[in-house]
Write a structure and sequence with these properties.
globular; Rossmann fold; six-stranded mixed sheet; alpha/beta
Length: 431
């Protein structure tokens, strides 16, 4: 298997910025869709009093995770927030009462075995904190009779420019990352663990190697610094040589991949019982005076968070996530969600106008999945579902490398996502 890759400027300006915990906001707007999967149903009504850690929305769907309040106060409204996906997401508005009361339900879970552990992970509201938002309980809840993984892979690649939230997690909470990994290995009976960290993070590699010195079943694997090294399939191949086939999950080749910050959170939750109500977020960009890492409450306004990093001017572009896979925010007061690992603010952003494809092949050479983005674009424009399937469009990991290298500035990555949605729609119709 040949893994194509590109090299990006790192721009890790906030790498040595110690994480600062921000004051709780006066108001939180908390979406009931904090993860991939089913949108949760509110379990509270207007006028209800809530405390930190109380469940405010939940779902019986397997692919879901409960939503909790990160502040104490009163539910004052339900509203729709325009999500970066373009859909309106039902959200719960809570007014802070200033008491910072913690819910009586926040207690360390009692765990006597695998099922208790999985139930605790679900109750915690844990999701993939690398940005994908896959419910952790579903990822860990495999049937050991069908397929039992032998490798737990901790994803600490953080290959996108600017973002340093996972790096700071290693530096500040490396012990928690290891503890979370060992809990997963213990209760799911996984023999070995590999911690993948890109080699442009030597301090994190050195720290984790020192912590793993007396743990022979946990290996720190320095990854070559390239993009998209942190994509799940690429990471598995880089660390184990195994290939995840199209239409299958990592479990099919004996692997489970968990983000490093997710591991640290699981450790925290098992010890304290405090669910996922805050997250570490990087704030950076060319108009940010103090590139920073913050821990902020879920539901806090992005605009309120970035004030602590001090902007030199008003942004003309706000990106939630990294510059490659992130999405532009519609509103500077967009509320922080569990899946946000960075907010990047830029001024004087260039505007590109796509021109005709010159058939240079750069996008093909850049694609880590070996796809042909130009052919996929043509097939989508022709609405040719069969051709899209034949070209394996579903292998696209939305890394954005094709758009990045395209000299014609064509929106190839965006077209791929539209193509995947179109193919799903046609497949569901039986076309």
């Amino acid at each position: 298997m040949i893994v194509h890759k590109i090299h990006l400027p790192h721009s890790k300006n906030s790498a040595e910025s110690e994480t600062v915990t921000l004051p709780l906001p006066s108001r939180a707007v908390i979406s009931t869709a904090q993860h991939l999967g089913a949108v949760c149903t509110p379990t509270v009504k207007v006028g209800d009093k809530v405390k930190i850690g109380d469940v405010i929305a939940d779902s019986t769907a397997v692919m879901s995770a409960p939503v909790h309040s990160g502040i104490s106060g009163t539910v004052v409204a339900f509203t729709d927030v325009l999500h970066i996906s373009g859909r309106n997401m039902p959200s719960i508005v809570i007014e802070n009462d200033g008491k910072n009361e913690v819910s009586e339900s926040v207690q360390p879970p009692v765990i006597n075995g695998r099922e208790d552990f999985l139930a605790a992970v679900r109750r915690s509201g844990s999701i993939g904190l690398g940005g994908a938002g896959f419910p952790t309980s579903m990822k860990l809840g495999f049937d050991p009779k069908e397929k039992h993984p032998d490798k737990l892979i901790i994803n600490g690649a953080e290959c996108e420019p600017y973002i340093t939230s996972d790096y700071r997690c290693f530096i500040e909470e490396g012990e928690k990352v290891l503890d979370g990994a060992e809990l997963i290995m213990k209760y799911l009976d996984i023999a070995d663990c590999i911690i993948g960290i890109e080699d442009n993070k030597p301090k994190a590699i050195a720290k984790m190697k020192a912590l793993c010195a007396d743990r022979p079943n946990i290996t720190v694997f320095p990854l070559k610094s390239s993009y998209p090294q942190g994509a799940e399939k690429t990471l598995i191949y880089s660390t184990t040589g195994r290939v995840v086939k199209e239409g299958t999950l990592p479990l099919s080749c004996g692997c489970i991949v968990i983000n490093s910050s997710t591991c640290a959170f699981i450790s925290d939750y098992i010890k304290t019982g405090m669910p996922l109500v805050t997250r570490r977020i990087t704030v950076d960009g060319n108009i940010v005076k103090k590139p920073s890492n913050f821990i902020a409450a879920v539901g806090m306004s992005i605009g309120e968070i970035v004030k602590y990093a001090e902007l030199t001017e008003e942004p003309d572009r706000i990106i939630l996530g990294g510059p490659m896979m992130g999405a532009c925010a519609f509103d500077p007061d967009y509320p922080l969600s569990k899946t946000n690992n960075a907010v990047l603010l830029f001024g004087h952003s260039p505007i590109y106008h796509p021109t005709a494809c010159i058939r240079c092949g750069k996008c093909v050479r850049a694609c880590s999945m070996g796809l042909m983005p130009t052919a996929l674009e043509t097939a989508f424009d022709m609405r040719d579902a069969k051709k899209l399937a034949d070209l394996n469009v579903n292998l696209c990991v939305n890394c954005g490398a094709c758009s990045y290298v395209c000299p014609a500035k064509r929106n190839l990555a965006e077209k791929n996502q539209l193509a995947k949605a179109f193919l799903r729609e046609q497949t569901n119709k039986g076309v």
